[in-house]
TrEMBL record:
Protein name: Peptide methionine sulfoxide reductase MsrA
InterPro entries: Met_Sox_Rdtase_MsrA_dom, Met_Sox_Rdtase_MsrA_sf
Family the UniProt entry places it in: Belongs to the MsrA Met sulfoxide reductase family.
Keyword Signal: yes
Peptide methionine sulphoxide reductase MsrA domain location: 51-202
UniProt source species: Flagellimonas aquimarina
């Protein structure tokens, strides 16, 4: 399969638009929440699907991107990559842990492969940006591709080698390839944040433009209605 050239440009965005909390007393606004019907999937249903884990900046953005992909059943925002148990958003966002904002992707391997999910991962962020994505900086926003076994690790490293051999990026890829250990689900108000808060300044100025750039390069990967 011919792999499309990934063209991802990191924009200079409003300093006021940030995934980081402004203070320790966060009171999120769930805009239009009453108009959004969230179907809660039981753990029994989700157990029927494979899981993959990625970190590539603010999880609000990453969750929305993976949820638009065919074969993905559910995406959960959370924390991974560190050693601290049961981290909170304030701890992670302020860099008080070694965790990164990450997502748990439940997918049907008969519809989409792990290889294609890796392509989505690299094609939806800047893997050459060290400890930063867009306006968000710090190790909590670093790029990580997690693997659960040797086969997944090989897929990730082979694809990174391919990207570098094709000269897709002007700078070296700094994505960490890390064995998956544990994933902690983020607080409820972070789940489906983009859907629930379409008028949030960060969503309008960062998440949606990032999502739109991804869609331009991966149209054939999108669910019906996500175009």
């Amino acid at each position: 399969m011919k792999i499309a050239t990934i063209t991802f440009l990191v924009s200079v965005l409003l300093a006021s638009a940030s995934c980081q909390p402004k203070n320790t007393s966060i009171k999120p606004v769930l805009a239009q929440q009453e108009a959004i019907e969230k179907i809660e999937l039981s753990s029994e249903v989700l157990q029927e699907y494979e899981t993959a884990y990625f970190a590539s900046g603010c999880f609000w953005c990453v969750e929305a991107i993976f949820e638009s992909v065919k074969g993905v059943k559910e995406v959960v925002s959370g924390y991974s990559g560190g050693t601290e148990k049961n981290p909170t958003y304030e701890q992670v966002a302020y860099g008080r842990t070694r965790h990164a904002e990450a997502v748990e992707v439940f997918y049907d391997p008969e519809v989409i492969s792990f290889t294609k999910l890796v392509q989505v991962f690299f094609g939806s962020h800047d893997p050459t940006s060290l400890n930063r994505q867009g306006p968000d900086s710090g190790a909590q926003y670093r790029s990580i591709a997690f693997y659960k076994n040797a086969a997944e690790k090989k897929i990730i490293t082979n694809y990174m080698t391919l990207l570098e051999s094709k000269g897709v990026y002007d700078r070296p890829i700094v994505t960490q390839v890390k064995e998956f250990d544990v994933f902690y689900k983020a607080e409820d108000y972070h789940q489906d944040f983009e859907k629930r808060n379409p008028n949030n300044s960060y969503i309008r100025n960062v998440s949606i433009p990032r999502y739109n750039r991804f869609k331009e390069n991966f149209k054939s990967y999108l669910k019906e209605g996500s175009h």
